[in-house]
Amino acid sequence: MSQFADTLIAWQRAHGRHDLPWQASRDAYRVWLSEIMLQQTQVDTVIPYYQRFLARFPDLASLAAAPVDDVLALWSGLGYYARARNLHAAAQQIARMHGGRFPQSASAIAELPGIGRSTAAAIAAFCFGERAAILDGNVKRVLARHFGIEGFPGVRAVEQSMWALAESLLPAQGVDTYTQSLMDLGATVCTRNRPRCADCPVAGSCVARQQGRQAELPTPRPTRVVPERQSRVLIARNDGAVLLQKRPPHGIWGGLYALPEIPDELDAEAHALTLGLRANGVATPLPPLRHAFTHFRLTLEPQLIDVSGEGIRDPAWRWAAPHEWDSLGLPTPVRRLLDSL
User: Fold this and answer.
1) What pTM did the predictor assign?
2) Residue 101 pLDDT > 50, yes or no?
3) What is the residue-wise DSSP string for 43-84?
4) CA 31 to CA 56: how far, in whole Å?
5) CA angle, 300 as apex, 297 and 247 as ends, to 5°?
């Protein structure tokens, strides 16, 4: 066992996190769910979603049998909705191809939708004791700082060298505790901003600390211009209910219910007419709402208009009263707009 791994294992047992809801079980379904929810999302945000999700879908069979709309509704507000769609698809694949039993090797787990190499390794290590390396964002930061690795970790050559290093550091035993120690160290001590180097168990051999380069490592992503997009959306209201459109299964807000976009060449009243609605007056512009995605920023410009008529007849469209909003998969900015009414 390397000194690095040995030290981290001892530290995790004494100072690591032991009370997270998913740590009480080695059930692969529960660990998998937590790993997917924790991608791009903080622990404190995940916990209530995780608990509600398990209450509704306590096992793989119940998730696989559920309509994807029910899954998206429970995911509403957590963001990165492709995770929810892939989670549902993977559950169905396990039911169909693995007899409902979660695959046990990292290589087999990585073949499921939405599961990459690092997530598959974490599940295999925690649940089945497989000796497999992880390399999520926290681990990349720990390794880059401790071993003085130059270069943006998103560059293929840099990432490959990190994978080789991560595999070389694996202990012969206790891989589950070691894996958790890396996660805990990155999340609670070797943080992106203001790392707590005085509390780090491997600070004595850390290159970044020795050279005072904690703020420089890992090398940040090259600066790029974030595109800005605008979209006028129609809030067509009929006796309190709002017209929503289910988006295509892929792309932005895939599979969720959103407000219809107003084409550039039309105003709100004219667009309502194309949807088979009669405007009861002139549309009222509401304050714009900005929302940041990973690769761009979106400004929604809502137009509120009271209408009459049933509107377009299509399964992708529906009227939703306020008491129904909680049961629908709604993107966070859309829900904020509706709540503002």
Assistant:
1) 0.89
2) yes
3) HHHHHHHHHHHHHH--SHHHHHHS-HHHHHHHHTTS--THHH
4) 16
5) 90
